[in-house]
Amino acid sequence: MPYYEHQNVSELTQGLLFESFYLLSDAQIRQSKNGSPYLFASLSDNSGKVNAIAWDYNGSLSSADTGKIVFVDGQAGVYNGAPQVICTTIELATEEEYERIDLEEIIPFAPVDCEHAAQKMRELLVSIEDEDYRNITLFMFDRLSSWLTIYPAAKSIHHAYVGGWLIHTYGMMLIAARVCEAYSPLYPINRSLLLAGCFVHDIGKLHELDLSDCNLVQGYTTDGRLIGHSVLGALLLETAYNMGKYPEDKIRQLQHITLSHHGSPECGAAVLPQTMEAEAVNYLDGLDSRMDIYTNALSKPDGGQFSEYIAAIGKSIYHISSKVGE
What we know:
Layout: E1 17-31, E2 37-45, E3 48-54, E4 69-79, E5 82-92, H1 95-100, H2 114-126, H3 131-148, H4 164-183, H5 191-200, H6 205-208, E6 209-211, E7 217-220, H7 222-226, H8 229-242, H9 248-260, H10 276-298, E8 305-306, E9 318-319
Parallel strand pairs: 3-5
Antiparallel strand pairs: 1-2, 1-4, 2-3, 4-5, 6-7, 8-9
Helix pairs in contact: 2-3, 2-4, 3-5, 4-5, 4-10, 5-9, 5-10, 8-9, 9-10
């Protein structure tokens, strides 16, 4: 099969015939009015998302293939005022095709070099003054290093791209280091605990999130659904404590941060933040998460417009015009 130049979802105009590769965001086998099966799918790339239909479908795609790359031969159309693709062919990309696809056109990746960011994160951990907090975090970093550069931070809300966990966590650590510099003459904030707390606050997501073949979140693990990442993070720290290497009181401080970093029970916290460092992690988590939500929304419409309503933050976002003189 020849290489097909990628056709952006955002540029699918009515009547356009095209062949391209997309991320399969959803796939359901349904039944038409005449009783024949058809595939209802959702296709996406870095430019947007579009629904797709394959009539009289007898292929093998199903919801189990969500998060995989598919080849599509189809025609763009409109249904009920919204774009829709009618597929002549829709099938999983082969291994040979994967090698020829530019995944950066299809899958969202972190906007920075994750290997370099991971190295800089480790340097920040090495800078932790308290030996116990330094050793705990370095132990966890080295144990989980193969996952840190690929995991997203979420399925859709914030940092939902390959390497998102790293960018979110490292971003919080960078802000935390600056907060300590600014606040050290005023408040007795513990830099070691704050940096370590930022590092571990979402560590449980590495066991909560179920990744697709493309390292995007396709769902949640059994542990993720039954326990959740906050408690999973606390359990990972308990494992470190049970190994007998680290003081119990310091493990408990870090567990408190993982369990309270969502701030309140209605937001998912197991307990309220009850230390200065836990309070700071809660606000730094919210700040960095919202900055990513804003960045994602601002990348879509032109300046001078409001975004669509964003459920995660309960409002729309205004796009300040970037035109000269405005």
